[in-house]
Design goal:
With 141 residues, the chain is mainly alpha-helical. It is elongated, with a radius of gyration of 23 Å. Helix 4 packs antiparallel against helix 5. The protein starts with a helix and ends with a strand. The protein is 58% helix and 3% strand. It has a domain of 91 residues. A hairpin with a 7-residue loop joins strand 1 and strand 2. The longest helix is centred in the first third of the chain and has 29 residues. A two-stranded antiparallel sheet has the order 1-2.
Length: 141
Amino acid sequence: MTTMARQLADRTGASLAVEDQAPLSPQNPNGTFEFYAIVFLGVGCSLGATITFVILGNTSAGGAVARPLLNTFYSALTPLLPHGAATSTLRDVQYFNHQGITGGVTSLLMWSGLGLLLLGTGALRPGHVRRTPGRSASPAH
């Protein structure tokens, strides 16, 4: 197994170094707080995204049933979440000759901007590693 990993690392220009992604703090050598914070933040973010985008987003999109047939709670979510904004925009383009697409396009642009902002923030974080072909990984400066 190690030989195969070493060959793969040589081909891709990576190194076989194990690096601690959450080093222990001097105040808490056991790392209990940091460990549980990382675990629960990961689980919490995943659960929040699932509830928001899958459960609420798909239900309020208005794809299977038109928005006027949804109850007031889901109907209010339709223009705010990307599922509903995209569905409403496509419906307005197809059936209403592009009338009323401003709200849906604005919502989709805002979600796209938020995604690009988060992507840029993640790429600029300290310790981010950039890899170039044929060279080993080195921390970004």
